[in-house]
Design brief:
The chain is an alpha/beta fold. It has 16 helices and eleven strands. About 40% of the residues lie in helices and about 10% in strands. Strands 1-3-2-4-6-5-10-11-9-7-8 form an eleven-stranded mixed β-sheet, sandwiched between helices.
Length: about 475
């Protein structure tokens, strides 16, 4: 536990931070100040934050310390005193919610998103709002709040669209973050930044107060330093919300209590279409096979599984999500298209021209993909793949002009198949640190499950985390 050097608080997990505050090793104000000092020192280069809520965070921390002195800290919840940051796609009362766009530069909501309200009820302290790709789409050419950098390698992307959420964790600029994952926007940055990122079952977490990208697939994404923190964060924000009638009424289990490290007899499917793709980076392939060996060594049964449509999941996803996004932004495109980034504008204009029959075929393919995944999960408990087929690319590789149809397939559809298959099927998946390339870039391991199997995939992820040390490594920041 940190006592001597308070600046080291930023390297603690959220669970350890809350425990340290409750035990008096340091105060909530100490924790917030440590993160604020870190943000001041580092974020000028990383560009993870859009807004830092300095005074609000210090005030909330002082209130938490006073509650502890009064002896009523127990009412604060599992994340008592923990400094966290939120993707700037979630409404925050009295605080700018920019959606990473000039078009929302004066958008100050009057109330909190349900996720934000529940985090505050759990005792967490809001440090600020995190950078993102414009409108949570990805591919922004000229981000209005700066281009987020990957703390593991400057000039490389920390992932999209929850770029700031991944970068902030890797640079230790918050103890917890919340992103949003429509087709991989939480798990991708987690993979590129050596963090944990969860895509929950559709309807598991309220979407009230989240600016939509695709109504069919949007989901809040807990993003953390450890699997334990992810379980705690998920438990704090999951559950039915009358403000979002699509949320499930299923009881929320104690996800943290499910992390016992025992996966003996668990059936782990090796998803062959995504694990054997010929275009995968060689070191990602090696890391995935090594991870499967580790899981087998822990007592899991490894089974080869085929889900044929996962190879096309990226194209299916874009056919649905982009057309839905174009519909959601139709008013903005008509009213003030000049306020949008040129890449965002082009993508929305293109998606608006997609024929209805193409979207209809994508929706049919989505239903078939879900059926294939359901059949797979009748045979195995979880499926394992890389989270991304290659490590974090350079920023200029993402914004370069497309040169051919094959180039489009590689850069636009191929990587989206890895994360896109689960939101298409409304199923959960988690990315956990799974290794590093020889030149020091993180590799993510993805573990997916059937509907409402968050506890199962987190149990497998925790067992793997405890058998490895990838999550303990620090970015050179």
């Amino acid at each position: 536990m940190v006592t001597a050097n308070l600046d080291d608080i930023v390297y603690l997990s959220a669970e350890a931070t809350a425990l340290g505050i409750r035990r008096g090793a340091f105060s909530a104000v100490d924790a917030v100040q440590a993160y604020l000092r870190r943000i001041d020192a580092v974020d000028g280069d990383i560009k993870a934050y859009i807004t830092v809520c300095r005074e609000e965070a210090l005030g909330a921390a002082a209130d938490a310390d006073e509650a502890l002195r009064r002896g009523d800290a127990g009412s604060g919840g599992a994340l008592f005193g923990v400094p966290l940051a939120i993707k700037d796609q979630f409404d925050t009362a009295g605080i700018l919610t920019s959606n990473g766009s000039r078009a929302y530069s004066d958008n100050v909501p009057s109330g909190d998103a349900t996720v934000v309200a529940r985090l505050k009820a759990a005792g967490a302290i809001l440090l600020g709002k995190l950078n993102l790709s414009e409108l949570a789409m990805g591919g922004t050419a000229d981000p209005p709040y700066g281009t987020p950098q990957n703390p593991w390698r400057r000039g490389h992307t920390p992932g999209e669209s929850s770029s700031g959420s991944g970068a902030a964790l890797a640079a230790h600029l918050c103890a917890l973050s919340v992103g949003e994952d429509t087709g991989g926007s939480g798990r991708g940055p987690a993979s590129y930044c050596n963090a944990v990122g969860l895509r929950p079952t559709f309807t598991r977490i309220s979407r009230y107060g989240i600016t939509p990208m695709c109504w069919f697939m949007d989901a809040a994404s807990p993003m953390t330093k450890t699997v334990e923190d992810c379980a705690l964060l998920l438990g704090a924000i999951a559950g039915y919300d009358p403000l979002d009638p699509t949320t499930s009424r299923r009881p929320v289990p104690d996800y943290r209590a499910m992390l016992d490290g025992d996966i003996r007899g668990m059936r782990v499917g090796r998803l062959s279409e995504l694990c054997d793709a010929p275009d995968m980076h060689a070191e990602v392939r090696q890391a995935t096979e090594a991870a499967l060996e580790t899981l087998a060594g822990l007592g899991a049964e490894i089974v080869d599984v085929s889900v044929p449509l996962t190879e096309l999941a990226g194209a299916i996803f874009v056919g649905i999500a982009d057309t839905e996004g174009a519909g959601a932004r139709d008013g903005l495109m008509r009213r003030a298209p000049e306020l949008l980034d040129r890449a965002s504008r082009t993508r929305l204009q293109s998606a608006a021209l997609v024929p209805a029959k193409v979207q209809n075929r994508a929706m049919k393919a989505r239903a078939l993909l879900r059926r294939q995944l359901e059949e797979a999960f009748a045979k195995v408990d979880v499926l394992v793949t890389p989270t991304a087929p290659y490590p974090a690319p350079r920023h200029d590789a993402l914004t370069a002009r497309f040169e051919s149809a094959e180039d489009v397939r590689q850069r636009f559809f191929f990587r989206r198949s890895y994360t896109g298959c689960y939101p298409l099927a409304a199923m959960p998946a988690v990315s956990v640190p799974g290794g590093f390339t020889q030149d020091g870039l993180p590799i993510g391991l993805q573990i997916g499950g059937g509907p409402f199997a968050e506890g199962t995939i987190l149990r497998a992820a925790y067992a793997y985390q405890e058998a490895t040390d990838w999550h303990t490594r620090r970015a050179p920041v």
